[in-house]
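B., you asked whether I could sanity-check this one before it goes into the benchmark set. Here's the sequence:
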Amino acid sequence: MARYHGPRWKLSRRFGESIFDDYKALERRPYPPGQHGRGRRRKVSEYGIQLTEKQKLRYLYGVLEKPFRNYFAKAASMKGVTGTNLLQLLEARLDNMVYRMGFAPTRRMARQLVGHRHFLVNGKLVDIPSYRCKPGDVVSLREKSRKNAHILEAIKNSTGRGRVSFVSLDEGAFEGTFVNVPERTDIPTNVQEQLVVELYSK
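And here's what the prediction gave me:
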């Protein structure tokens, strides 16, 4: 499956915030990339603003266009606010859970760790990053993976990075629980999801 393999820091500069937890890029150059990054930029259309917000949300969670459309269709068919439903579905992904628990410094690495069969869900091996966790599900690190240097370093350096109230963590047991479906105010994602809804509703 195709993934974005270009310069990650350019994406962060384009959107004006860290997409891959590469904050240093914005500290060094807090303006968009390209030869016109520092100059006056032409006025962006309403469609352009909506598209940018959708792309930002896609890159944040590492989801390709077709799966993202499927998430939106699912969110639109659910009860409640479509934008909030969309964020809830993305937060329930297994790779996002691994990231929220601090076992990986980025969602990209979390996706790789899941694919390499390092995690269990309710005691069963799951290697599908998009696996949808449900409230009460327990995500744990496999016994033989508890000495993995990359994972141990991520845990050591996490210092609460990405932690949220709807994911509880037991560091001693190397496991976390998806406590409940989060409210919008509980999701620390700086996006205007309503713009994404407007884009797909045209």
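One thing to flag: The chain is about 45% helix and 10% strand. Otherwise nothing jumped out at me.
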